[in-house]
Amino acid sequence: MTTYDRTGEPIDEHPRDCRGGWLGTDREGRPVPCLACKPHLVRRSDINDFADRQPSDRAQRAINEENRNA
Questions:
Q1: Does some domain include residue 30?
Q2: What pLDDT is attached to residue 54?
Q3: Does residue 70 form part of some domain?
Q4: Inter-residue contact 33 to 14 (CB < 8 Å)
Q5: For the chain, which terminus, N or C, has the lower number of CB atoms within 10 Å?
Q6: pLDDT tens readout for residues 28-68
Q7: Looking at the 3D structure of the chain, how many domains does it have?
Q8: What is the spatial distance between Cα 44 and Cα 7, in angstroms, rounded to a whole number?
Q9: What pairs with residue 22 in β-bridges?
């Protein structure tokens, strides 16, 4: 049976060290979730790629120049 994460990507295999949906703790003692058991905890990236107003001509030229050099 294939397990899928929140985005629909398949999860290759279930971690062997999973205990009740947890993989132990990190360096700071916080619990680490098993994403195969708890797919709702997978982080999503939200890109907010819009502005309330158009950039000035000078700003747009700088943005275009930066994009050309990237």
A1: yes
A2: 83
A3: no
A4: no
A5: N
A6: 999 999 888 888 887 766 666 777 788 889 998 998 998 88
A7: 1
A8: 8
A9: 19, 33
